[in-house]
User: What shape does this take?
Amino acid sequence: MSIAIDAGLVALGCAGAVYALQLWRRGGRGWSLATGLGALAGAIWTAVIVLRWIETRHWPLATAYEFALCFVWAIVVTYLMLEAASGVRAAGIVVFAIALSLAAYARYLIPAAQQTPRTLLPALQSTWFPIHAGTAAVGYGLAAVAAGAALGWLVGHWRGWSDSSEELDRLWRLALAWSFPWLSLAILSGAIWAQTAWGVWWNWDPKEVWALLAWLIYTLIFHLRIYRNWRGTRLAWLTLLGFGAVLFTFLGVGWLARTVGLESLHVF
Amino acid sequence: MSAVLLGLLSVLVLLGTLFPQQPGYDELRWNTAIQNRYGGLAGPLAAIGLFNLYHSLGFRLNLIALTLNLAACTLRRGPALWRAAFARRPVVRPHSFYQSGPHRASFTLAENITDPMNLLTSVLRRRGFRLHAATQEGTYLLAERGRWTPLASLLSHVAALALVLAFGASELWASHCTVVLLPGQTIPLVGEALLRHDGFDIQRDEAGRAVQYIAHLTVLENQREVRRAEVRVNAPLHHRIGIYLYGYGPALLVTAHLADGTPVRLQAPEGISQTGQIALISGGEGAGTELFLPDQNLTLHLVYHSQGPRLFLQAFRPGETRPILAEEVQPNTPVDIAQSGVTLSIGVDRYLELQLVHDPGYPWAVSAGAVLLAGLIVSLYLPQRRVWARVRGGEAWLVGQSDRDAAGFAAQFAELVQELETKLGPLTPPKETAG
Assistant: This one.
């Protein structure tokens, strides 16, 4: 398992490096190599997820470690799909850097004890568990791609790369349009699951609140884009803020709950 | 305004995670914890509602304002969206239209093309467009896809409104009641129905970790069993209200009789009195629970430790601090209490903590959420797309439009132009004077 993760880390690093090189060279024939390495990373992370599944004998989404693995997988796979759909590759460096950071966090910063496979807790034995956590992972992955495209757009805008800015805007819009329904589905399925498990569909749990906060930011993005015709820099910053909220929902809520003394069902 | 209200709501929900929120129980412990943490600031912070933010007036006012704004926005935009879905668009457009459309192309028809409109029709129909044709100084075509999809935006706004109202209904009318049920005990449920605790099991894996909790419950009506169920976490029992497994803990089953077998009257601290046998909630780990034997004038103090497990029994006469009996006892093993003639037997079982729930807002919330999601998907992935075409004098013009800035339409239009270029003839720059 750890060998597969290390191989996945190397593949992510290599793909990111080639994307960076291509961006620096302003295009050329190396893009296919970048995409090929990205696809290799996607294949390795798919294998990582399958191996973890076999090891735990349940959906590998039950702990922060398992969710991080799926988050990385979702970033890589959704990015490759959107890259194929839009033909835009300029965000690859940022997206693979995000995926690499998360993978390194899962591999090296999550304590080994928490990486040990465990039996599924009774509360997690629900049909809604893979739906809720799985859609959240995909939504988070797409949000990461949108953030990567927005950051790339900002850099392109500052450097005056008008051609790549236009392309990145296309990828950015596409990723936003895909992430929002997935994030919505994650919240909706979470509410149904909470009702099934505890009879309360909304409990103001810190994790729920931060997921709602991220959703509100994305709602605001669509609202401002459609009804206020917001474009460019301001929207890019808002997209980064939305992804910040997504990351905090995953990584920060546990710390916040412990620091502030909040009660949360999602702290593990 | 809606952006401001959404922004304000974001700030408020954020604030709610920066300050601990008051739970609905153990007020004394909560107040002490808040005093210890915030000192003199605890009072002012509580006064402005920061410790109960999601139920504070400010938060509710923001939600009400957002709801009203959403309703106003839906009403204002409704007619335009309705028109966008149902209004007939002109098929014949002036030449200027073909020179200013957001996506446009013109072709010089190849000499061998005899029926260009037929070609255009077949290409657009194959791409899923519905077609309307007209003839007036040339042949015109309007191709539409996703004509009804503007209604999805209206639908998602209405669903968002319904979701907030469902949340309000849950806040106002939902009831959540936690009950503790001792082994064998029956409690009133709804109307004539009663609920009985028939047992509790914990399934464990090889390492001894709990993998499933199963409560065996029976619903009785008019003293008849109408339903038996195994209630688990994630598998509640619904019998007019929802019955959810919330927790469990050790319960002590005390049986007492005299030497001749006469059952003894037993009185729990809550005042419940039974003869012969009684079930008691064991306090927290190592905490004691009391039982009174009024006819023998005896008070029993029982302490249960789950580690072991170990059970300790003390018996006191009223007003005396020195027990007449103090020993560790084995579960289900008879113990004689000296000087009283009472024989006790203490069994260990588990009590259940159940949540009885009635939430009229939940079905509405889920339905509204599902409609909102469906509306979002249609709005974002299936935009309304239109293509106008005109064929006149050896040339064909094409204009594409999509509602909002639907992602991907530019690429789809480019693909269409590419296909038509191979079938109709080469692309030509739009002419400035014609028509």
User: Anything to note?
Assistant: The first helix of chain A runs from residue 2 to 25. Chain A touches chain B through 54 residues (CB under 8 Å). Chain A has a mean pLDDT of 90. The CA atoms of residues 129 and 259 of chain A lie 27 Å apart.
